[in-house]
Amino acid sequence: MVAASLSTPTAAAGAAPGSWIAALLANATGVASAGADALAPSRSRAAQALAQTPLPSRRVEAWRFTDLAPLTALSPTLLSPVPAAQPEVGAGSLRLNLDGHSDPLAGISLPAGLEPIGGDELNATLGQVLAATGSAELWPVLLNGATARNVLALRVRGPVATTLELVSDAGDGEGILPLRLLLVLEPEASLEVLQVHRSGGANLTSFVLEARLGEGAELRHGLLAPGAETGCLLATVAVEQATGSRYSGVSAHGGWALGRLEPRLVQREGAAHSALKALQLADGRQISDTHSQMVFEGPDGRLEQLHKAVADGQGRSVFNGAVQVPRAAQRTDAAQLSRNLLLSDRARIDTKPELEIVADDVRCAHGATVSRLEQDELFYLQSRGIAADQAARLLLRGFCEEVLQELPEAARPWQPLASLLGEQGR
Amino acid sequence: MIRPDAPVLLEIRDLTARVEDQPILKGVSLTIRAGEIHAVMGRNGSGKSTLSKVLAGHPAYTVTGGTVLYKGEDLLSLEPELRARAGLFLGFQYPVEIPGVSNLEFLRVATNARRAGKGEEELDTFAFEDLVRERLQVVQMDPAFLERSVNEGFSGGEKKRNEILQMALLDPLVAVLDETDSGLDIDALRIVAGGVNHLAGPDNATLLITHYQRLLDVITPDYVHVMAAGRILRTGGKELALELEERGYDWVDAELAALERTPAEVG
Ligand SMILES: Nc1ncnc2c1ncn2[C@@H]1O[C@H](COP(=O)(O)OP(=O)(O)OP(=O)(O)O)[C@@H](O)[C@H]1O
Ligand SMILES: [Mg+2]
Fold first, then answer.
1. How far does CA A143 lie from the centroid of its chain?
2. B212 is in which domain, residue-wise?
């Protein structure tokens, strides 16, 4: 592991962190939401909990390497983003724009197999997957719960051929954009979802996705989140899987002052398949963080996890991959690999598997590598006339593509690599 | 083809080089003129690949003495990519696998870099596809290899064919081929040798590093050099290779010992 200079934690100019929350809650309560406010009861519960929870500090293990200073430097208000330019929607996709207050389904006709969940059923379902994955009390989840105005909740029946694109762009406005999502996949349902979250300024995109997969259901889930130098991303993806279900998550985030992704998966009776492929990038003084958690509550479950990170400049990459295999989870087969590319002496990479294995008949493999660009690979390219900096870019691209090419097809027009490396005009 | 009046393309004089603290090249001299084919032979570990990598500019090797002139200009002061753009080509003994980088794109970027070096304009993707498909035939390679990552998962022989494909695209002035024949089956050897012969002409030159006469049966060298302990110990015509095939390298030890006793050579 290679260490480098650390930025010292500082609070928002003049404001104590606690008062940042107080100011945010005061601002958030004053905002009315469009239509029926299904979230009102849970919002006030979350607000109360948030007010009583201290800000995560680096003395807490889960936040040891991740400084919240970029977040508390933001304006403690709710953001209403203005619509931004987007690539055209591909033929097989339905794009829903999320701005935190208007109804993303207004004027949309959903494809066969998708229908909104509302009323009592929504109230009964919301929060269950968070509870099942032990995520309800996470600070980013409380923050989202205390501020989110509406929720996009969909039920999935049967195979849905259309890719669902869920898109937000916080733009260059100041404040917080909270997004809440719920997907309930009936048994044997299947769906492909691509989330794209962008930002161009000093704001926070906070999203919480709950997904429940019935028996034999399949969710292919892509997340592309290219950030902004002063922007923050706090993302929680909670997935509850019944037997025979398949969840495949492919994520790529980078370019955020603070970008943190928390995939939290539980296989309720085991015997399901979970795959996580992730790429995160940190350049400049950025922090890119992934804390993943996989819990097997029954036997014969599978996990395939690949986590890749690139740290350049004075960037900081954090990966913590928890895997819990209690006694009930015999014959679990879990593989976790963390591969890291360190491009600068001043960047820092912290990677840690966290395996808790109680069952005895299991296969759990894990590994972590931190390396620089291979001299022999660089030389091979140079020996073909390719300049050193271009050769380095090709190798970096090669490193990233292994994950990016697994994103849903609908991600292509969003130019995953160029957007993450900041190589395209916004 | 030996023409005493042909221009000198590569002139290596008293070249010494080390890796970390270990001297490996201990005074190599070699002159190559346009139109010539040279073969370098020698025992394992004698420094053949080191010589090729020093010429191409591998950063692991430090030149400690001597000069290398390429078309009359100092080669050693150039970055590796500039050497390549100027027409020096190294066919690697162990071609490097580069996961995630498509072979097709790699070949296109490399070809355009070399074209820029020759003062020609870049080929767009379509023009390049035409060119690469034509050159694929020189090495009888399946176009499917273009879609894969550079050398990744290629068999030993497939990697070598990919090297010759690169050579065919880059149109080098001086090609140094380090054991391009090793790991090839009989048909592949014929194809690769045919490719080298096809590309060799009066204006360029080839330096073949090989262990086997069977390559020199198909590519006739003008000169054969025997390398030992970081030097060129002996130079002859194509009959020297036949002699080596018969006698092996035992005589090398005696000659080396004699060299070590000569003070002028030690300093
Ligand atoms: N990067 C390196 N680090 C350490 N030693 C090296 C390195 N490169 C070469 N050497 C050493 O230098 C010597 C010459 O190696 P070189 O690869 O040039 O031999 P060669 O003549 O090409 O052998 P072969 O016929 O087996 O290919 C060997 O003893 C080798 O171990
Ligand atoms: Mg060699």
1. 15
2. 8-94+172-261
